[in-house]
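F.,

This is the one I mentioned.
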């Protein structure tokens, strides 16, 4: 089976709150029992966007993704971030594959993007990805966070050696030129991984 998610060009500049327009494609090959999971942000995508940009892309099963942003302003401002997540135990071996998994951000993407930018990309099974941004502005401002995460091991009778592992993640060197702000990018190609990017900014 082949799963593919793609973000293509065509997003427009939004002044206050930018939500990317996602063009997703999913392909399934039923002739074999082989998975090939791919997520990709195409070239010339998301350039000049402004504001809050949140993207979750997943190809695979039992993945958890979250982009959280908390903003508080004023005297004794309190910004809170709380996460609790656990992936399922994948005993159904039809959901697990040693086939190559690929996660990519292509060239000429996110040029001159400005704002709070959070991107999760995963190809695989039973993974957790979280991007958190907490901002508190004012006298005695505080940011409080709480995190509880776990994954359950996926079925893998013969773990891959480094030589046999063909999973790949890629960010083109020409992406993100001129980008400004808080930028979080999480990429996973594989099974049973946890990635957390957390930014806390109390500003007084």
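My design for it:
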């Amino acid at each position: 089976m082949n799963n593919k998610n793609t973000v293509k060009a065509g997003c427009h500049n939004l002044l206050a709150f930018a939500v990317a327009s996602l063009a997703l494609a999913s392909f399934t090959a039923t002739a074999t029992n082989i998975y090939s999971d791919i997520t990709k942000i195409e070239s010339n995508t998301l350039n000049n966007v402004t504001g809050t940009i949140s993207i979750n892309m997943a190809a695979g099963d039992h993945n958890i993704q979250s982009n959280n942003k908390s903003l508080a302003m004023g005297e004794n401002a309190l910004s809170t971030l709380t996460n609790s997540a656990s992936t399922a135990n994948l005993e159904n071996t039809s959901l697990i594959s040693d086939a190559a998994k690929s996660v990519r951000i292509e060239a000429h993407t996110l040029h001159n993007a400005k704002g709070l930018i959070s991107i999760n990309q995963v190809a695989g099974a039973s993974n957790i990805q979280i991007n958190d941004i907490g901002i508190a502005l004012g006298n005695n401002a505080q940011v409080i966070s709480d995190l509880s995460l776990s994954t359950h091991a996926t079925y893998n009778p013969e773990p891959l050696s480094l030589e046999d592992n063909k999973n790949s993640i890629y960010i083109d060197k020409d992406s993100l030129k001129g980008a400004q702000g808080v930028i979080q990018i999480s990429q996973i190609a594989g099974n049973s991984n946890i990635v957390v990017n957390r930014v806390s900014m109390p500003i007084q």
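DSSP finds no helices and twelve strands in the chain.

Talk soon.
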